[in-house]
Design a protein that fits this description.
This protein is mainly α. It has 4 helices and no strands. Helix 2 packs antiparallel against helix 3.
Length: about 100
């Protein structure tokens, strides 16, 4: 139970890990933005894995803590939505770059 809570705290939306790895400023390059998006994908995958494990443990009766299950699933869902928004913004930026006259 304590290990599950530590995993859940470790996946606390993963934004602290993302912010510490690359800080976006007005002079940061597009490569840094892509690196941050890659870190976001890794964090979202970790959160999804934790939520899946909690769901499996709950369904098999290994864990009866509904609260931790719901929190893990909600964090995973929020990270997925955030990741999709970042992807959409990157696609918009790419399309805008492709429209620039050479």
């Amino acid at each position: 139970m304590i290990q599950s809570l530590q995993q859940l705290q470790g996946a606390s939306l993963g934004l602290d890990k993302i912010n510490n790895s690359t800080k976006l400023t007005s002079d940061s390059s597009f490569v840094d933005s892509l690196e941050m998006a890659k870190n976001l994908l890794n964090t979202a995958n970790e959160a999804e894995g934790i939520a899946s494990q909690y769901t499996y443990d709950f369904m098999t009766g290994k864990n009866d803590n509904v609260h931790s299950l719901m929190i893990a699933q909600e964090k995973s869902g929020i990270l997925l939505q955030f990741t999709m928004q970042v992807r959409n913004q990157l696609m918009d930026a790419y399309k805008e770059i492709m429209r620039l006259p050479i």
